Amino acid sequence: MPGIIFTDAKNGMTREEIHRDYQIPLSVIKAYDEWALSGSKTPQYSEEDLRRLSLLVTLHEAGFSAPEAQAYLRLDGEAGDTRGQRLLLLNARRKAM
Questions:
Q1: For residue range 85-94, what is the model confidence (pLDDT) as tens digits?
Q2: In 1-97, which ranges are E strands?
Q3: What values do phi and psi take at 45, rounded to 5?
Q4: Which residues are CB-contacts of 13 (< 8 A; sequence separation ≥ 6)?
Q5: What would the pLDDT profile of 1-47 be if each residue is shown by its tens digit?
Q6: Rounded-to-integer distance, Cα 23 and Cα 42, Å
Q7: pLDDT tens, residue by residue, 37-78
Q8: For the whole model, what pTM was predicted?
C-alpha cells in the first residue's frame, strides 16, 4: 500500500490503530488473525500485515469469498513465485462475475 508511514515502525500498530487510521473493518482484521496470516502471536501488525490486510479488503470488494481470499493471501505469503497461481484465482473470479 503506497504512502503508508508508521510512526513507530519498531513496535508496529495495534488492531485498533489499523481500524481507526486505515478504516479496515475489524471483521477483516479478525479473519486475518484467525487464518494466522500475520505470522505473529503478538497484537502488533507490521507494514507487511497492513499491506496484506489492504489486499484482503480489495479481494472482498472484488467479490472473493472468504475461502478464495484466504487461498490468495496464503499464496501471496509463500516463498517463491506464486504469481501464476494467484493469476488463476483472479481469472476464475473474473469469469464468475
A1: 999 999 999 8
A2: 13-14, 44-45
A3: -120, 135
A4: 6, 21, 44, 45, 50
A5: 444 444 444 568 898 999 999 999 999 998 888 887 666 666 788 88
A6: 21
A7: 666 666 788 888 899 999 999 999 999 999 999 999 999 888
A8: 0.77
Query: One-letter amino acid identity for 88?
Result: L
> Cα–Cα distance between 83 and 15 in angstroms, integer?
29
**CA gyration radius for the chain?**
14
Question: Where on the phi/psi map is residue 12: left (φ > 0), alpha (ψ -120 to 50), or beta?
Answer: left
* Count of C-beta atoms within a 10 Å radius of residue 56: 25
Distance CA 60, CA 44 (A): 23
Q: Please check whether residue 47 is in contact with residue 9, taking contact to mean a CB–CB distance below 8 angstroms.
A: yes
